[in-house]
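Subject: Sanity check before I submit

Could someone independently write out the C-alpha cells for this chain? I want to compare against mine line by line before I put it in a report. The sequence has 515 residues.
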Amino acid sequence: MSLATQTVAEPAAVHEDDPRRRAWAAVFALARFEARDLLRYVLVLATLVLYVGYTVWTLFHEKDGMEAFPVLQDADRDTQNGPLLLGIALFVCVNRCTLRSRRRGTDRQFDVLVMEPWRRTVAHVLSVVPFAAVTALVVLGEFTRQALRPGAVGHGSPAELAVGPLYVLLCGALGVLLARLVPSTFAAPVGIVALFVASVFLSAGTSGAEWTRWLSPIVGETSGNTVLPSDLVGRPAAWHALYLTGLILLPALCAVLVSGGRALPLKAATAGALALTLAGAVGQSGGVSPELAAARERASVSPQRDQTCVEHGTSTYCAFPEWTGRAGTWAGVVDRVQSLAGGTAARQPLLVRQRVEARYGLGGDTALDPLTTPHQVTVGTRWGGNRVPEFAVAVGYVLVAGDEAKGGELCDGRVVTAMWLALGGDSHPMTSFTNVRLDDSVTGAAYVLAPTSGLSMTAEQTDVVRELLQRPRSEVTASVKRHWSELTASGVSTAQVARVLGTEVPKGAKDCAQG
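---
Independent answer below. Compare away.
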C-alpha cells in the first residue's frame, strides 16, 4: 500500500466513526438533560431532600442507648430502607418523562431527528444513574459513620450496601419499560399497586416460603432482636446483588428492544441479563447450608469452641471474636456491681460468657436458658440502653444466689439485695430501675428483665428497693457489706431485709409474687 493510499484511508476511517461517536455523545447529553428534568418534579425533589436530609441529620445526631453500640452486620441492612420512597418517586416520574413526547404530541418531530427512538430510551434509563450515585454516597456515608462509632463491632457486607443504589436503578428501569409497553400516565400508579398485590399473592400462595422473600428487591428480617456474628448471618447477599443486577439490565434492555433496537449484540445482552437474573434467583434460594447450620448449632450449644477469653481484674470474659473489644465495658459493669457486695462475693471471680441463640437465624427470638454452672454470667450480643442494667441484674443475682438458674428463682428477701447490687452504683438508678422492669414502673409487682431468666418482684420488694435507691449510696453500701451474710441467707424475708437496711418495713410483705 502506498503512502498516498494510507493518507486517504486513515481520514476516511475517522470520518466513518464520527457519526457513531456523535450519536452516543447525544445520548449522554440527553441523559443529563433528563436527569436535571427529573429534579423539576416535586415528588422526586421532595423524596431526595427528605432521604439525604434525614440521613445527614442521623449522622451528626448524638446516639445513645443501643444505637451507640452498632453491630455492622446489621447496620449494612439498615441502609436499605432509606431509598424506598425515592425509588417509587423515580418509577413514577421517569415513566412520565419517557411519555413526555407522546403526551405533548411531539413524537412526529422526534421521528425526523437523527437519534433513533431506542437511543432516546437508553438516555431515559441512564437519567436515573445520578440518583443511584447519590444514593451510593449516602449509603457509604451512613455506614462509615456507624463503623467509626467507638462502640461499633462486626463486619458489614458490600453486597448488602449495594442494595439501595441497585433498587433505585431498578425502579428507573421498570418505569421506562412500563412507558414503552403501556404508553399511559396512569400505568405507573396502577403498576405500583399491581406489584404490591402480586407480592402478597405470591407470598400467600407459597405459604411464605423463604425463596419468595428474596424475589423482593429489599429483604428485611422479621425480628430485629437477634444479632449474630457476621459469619453466622447466612443472608445470600452476594447472590441477591447479582439477582438485582440482572433484574436491572433485563427491563432496561427489553425497553430498548421494544423501542426498535434490533442489533444482535442487544438481543444477546438481553438473553445474558435473563440468565444473570435466573442465576441470582436460584443462588439466593438455596437456604441454610449444612455447614452454616452446624456452625449455628455450635455457637448456640457450645460457644466456648468459637470464643476468645480475656481477663479483666479477677474475672474472665469470653466472647465471639468480633466482640472481644467490649470486654472492658462489661468489666466496668461487673466491677461496679461487685463494689457494692460484701463477704466473698466482693472478690468472687466470675466467668462472663457471651451467648446467642443462632439456630433459628436472624428471625429467631428465643430466650436463652440460664446457666447452671456456678459464678457464670450470660451477656448477649446487643449492648447499650436497657441491656446494661439487665446485665447488671444477672451479675447481681449470681453474686447473691451462686448461679443464673438459682438467681432466676429468687423470690424471698434476697431479691432486694440483688436489685440493690444491680442498680445501687448506677449513675441514674431510678431510670435504670424503670427500664429494667417489664412494665416500666417503679411501684407494684413486676417482672425484671435479664439476659436469661429475670426476677419476679412483689410490690413490697419494689417499695424497699425504691427507698434504698433514693438514700445516700455510701450509707446503704455500708449496711449491705456489714450484714451481707444475713441479707443473702436462703429464706430471708423481705421484712427482715428492710429492717436490717433501715428502711420502712412494708406491711403484709410477701416473699414471692402472687399470680
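---
OP: Matches mine. For the report I'm noting this point. The longest helix spans residues 3-38.
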